[in-house]
Amino acid sequence: MNEPTRFGTVTPEVVERLSAILGAGGVSVDGEKIAVYSRDEVAERFWDRPYRAEVLVFPESTRHVSEILRMANERRIPVTPRGAGTGLSGGAVPAFGGILVSFERMNRILELDTENLCMTVEPGVITAEITRAARKAGLLYAGDPCSGDASFIGGNVAENAGGNKVIKYGPTGSSVLALEVVLADGSVTWFGGKRRKDVTGYDFVHLMVGSEGTLGIITKIVLKLLPLPAFGVDLLIPFPTVEAAIRFVPRIALEGRVTPASIELVDHHSLSQAEKFLNTRLPFDQAAAHLIVQLEGNDREVVADETERVGKLALEKGALEVFVADNRSSRDKLWKARKSVAEAIMAYYQNYAKEDLVVPTDRVPDLLFAVDALCRKWRMEAANYGHVGDGNIHVNLLMADDRPHWHEDMEQARQELYETVRQLGGTLSGEHGIGLKRKAYLPQFLDAPQLELMRRVKLAFDPNGILNPGKLVFWDKKTGEAGA
Ligand code: 2HG
Ligand code: ZN
To answer: Is residue 169, in this structure, part of any structural domain at all?
Structure first.
């Protein structure tokens, strides 16, 4: 049961209104279905209680979303937008019940504009479909979250998903040119346009990006495309220590004079989970850490030359070997292993904390030393992997035993870890978002003036606090109102 709040509830009359807007097939009050849709990838036992929407809706158009919001706003009913549920922060969990809006029926690619190099899509398109559609036209959509085969682009935008190509192309937000947004009162507006530059007013496009559905509901997205690089290779580079692997990262740019598309780290523990999960082996899998360095370009010789340079440099800096994957199957195998680490860990461990920390890149070794010490203190294991080129490390704290107070221990360990991150000049989340999972820790990272500004921005967009309440912005627990 959701706690009583001053929010309006979903009465049979509200369900009727929703059915009138969407048609009976666009509304569900089926408890089992609602339970499935009220979750993301965070296991429910990590919450203090299960959260459930009161009604689930499937809009098919901007007009549908607009009418839902107008009605919800009049009655102060919470509205939580939901993509494919691949999120890792509880961002799409309906913390105050109300209406859960699934975007699975708004799943069309509306336009591929090869003159302006952009694509207009609805929020329910699967990220990988966008990549494929662009590729067919010889173009690149640069967003590459690890969950891209399942995630919806709307969720990627709402969380400003990062992924594997951020070092070269930036996170999802760097590819967003414009957004059609339904505001809390149901009005519809466009932020941005098919333009590469725009200082005409505040940058609302990038305020919406990463705002976790708390400011408005995105109904169309214009994505920037780039020419598709003709050649690509992935270097798999094992190192005898994690530190040696990390110390090599800045050398790639400085001495190698190369900007890779990806620089990913997978430590030994992470790799062995993925190997077990996929029943596969990667070379040198006893090494303490592997880097994956992706190089790409339009000139075969330039890519070959860069491959040679980075490979040579790696061996000079202590790499155990350099493996070059330059065909489809070897590249796919490598990335499949990298992208399945998160799922593998969830399959083999019950009690874990999946983190999404970011520190300045030169502080990554300090972060990992601190993680080692923390694990010794709390009798835990760690799997460290992620986007080392961006300083964004998915520290996963794992408990092999099933101790009775595992939750308290984990909480303490997380607190200590966050304090270290803060001292290193780092932050709480690089790409997964705050959601329900990290909300309590925001004040450790954002000062009072910033939190107050966030609250006022929220109030400007959503005076009744109906949009994804409970996320990102501090609200009054009793009233459920954003402004309290
Ligand atoms: C990845 O980079 C994903 O693999 C998931 O962002 C990370 O689950 C995680 O910790
Ligand atoms: Zn990641």
So the answer is: yes
Domain count, the chain: 4
CATH assignment of the domain containing 21: 3.30.43.10
Question: Does the beta carbon of 394 sit less than 6 angstroms from any atom of ligand 1?
Answer: yes
C-beta 430 within 6 A of ligand 1: no
> Residue 359: which CATH number?
3.30.70.2740
476 pLDDT tier (thresholds 50, 70, 90): low
Residues 264 and 202 in one domain: no
Q: What is the pLDDT of residues 129-187, one digit of tens each?
A: 999 999 999 999 999 999 999 999 999 999 999 999 999 999 999 999 999 999 999 99
* Dist. CA 88 → ligand 2 center (Å): 10
Q: Given this model, what pLDDT does residue 479 score?
A: 56
Residue 463 falls within a domain, yes or no? no
Based on the domain organization, do 148 and 222 belong to the same domain?
A: yes
CA 364 – ligand 2 centroid, Å: 15
Residue 333 lies in a domain: yes
Which ligand approaches the C-alpha of residue 86 most closely?
Answer: 1
Task: Write the CATH number for 327.
Answer: 3.30.70.2190
Residues 278 and 305 in one domain: yes
Question: pLDDT tens digits for 352-388?
Answer: 999 999 999 999 999 999 999 999 999 999 999 999 9
* pLDDT of 292 higher than 50: yes
Same domain, 296 and 275: yes
Per-residue model confidence as pLDDT tens digits over 207-232: 999 999 999 999 999 999 999 999 99
CA 434 – ligand 2 centroid, Å? 14
Residue pointed to by tokens 């007009």:
63
Indicate which atom in ligand 1 lies nearest the CA of residue 387: 2
Output the CA 430–ligand 2 centroid distance in Å: 8
Q: Which atom of ligand 1 is nearest to the CA of 162?
A: 6
171 and 255 within one domain:
no
* Ligand nearest, relative to CA of residue 394: 1
| Pocket of ligand 1 contains residue 235 by CB under 6 Å | no
pLDDT digits (tens, 9 = 90+) for 1-48: 445 568 999 999 999 999 999 999 999 999 999 999 999 999 888 898
Residue that finishes a domain, picked among 49, 81, 102: 102
Domain-ending residue, one of 313, 341, 369: 341
Say which residues have a Cβ less than 8 Å from residue 143's Cβ, sequence separation at least 6.
127, 130, 131, 153, 156, 161, 163, 165, 169, 171, 172, 175, 223
Residue nearest to atom 5 of ligand 1 (CA): 342
> In Å, how far are 12, 82, 146 from 16, measured between CA atoms?
6, 22, 39
Enclosing domain of residue 368: 349-423
